[in-house]
Amino acid sequence: MTISRLLSGLALATALVSIAPAAAQAATAQAPAGPATAGTTAAQGAGPWGTYYAPGRRAKANGSLTVSGEDHADIPAAERGRISGKVYDLTRGPSCGWAVFRLTYRSADGRNLPFKHRSIVDCSYGTPKPFTFTQRDLYQVELKVCSEAKASKPSLNCLYAGTWKVLYVSK
Hints:
The protein contains 2 helices and 7 strands. By secondary structure, the protein is α+β, with helices and mostly antiparallel strands. Strands 1, 2, 3, 4, 5, 6 and 7 form a 7-stranded antiparallel β-sheet that branches. A hairpin with a 5-residue loop joins strand 2 (59-71) and strand 3 (77-89). The longest helix is centred in the first third of the chain and has 28 residues, at 2-29. The radius of gyration is 20 Å and the shape is elongated. 30% of the residues are buried.
């Protein structure tokens, strides 16, 4: 009798553990969209974004994003997106702070969504590096913040480990 109670309790606990992440995701998906604040995204529209940190809080980035001329054709895209902000190196050692953007845009023929990376690196502890750039036919903007050695481009670990933070998606 006690073994069957133990197995029943274990089955119930397993069911609750498997349901909890789905319930949490559903609750956050239904949260009202408002202005972005520190630590949130502006996924439903342009505005301020960040502050986002690299693992271990060794670098951070924040800024704003504005879009103009949203076109709601077969593949919706903003005619122009402007991303600006600052990246901070929070280490005194040889590593640098990286803000890596993945910019998804509508191709010239209007049928595809290729992406490209745009990276900003700051290796000066205590002095943030400001940046501003634009992208035409912008569909989506994602961000990763990394802390690693100075190089000509971010490492594969920076690009492919962890998750991208969505800053904007054209509706």
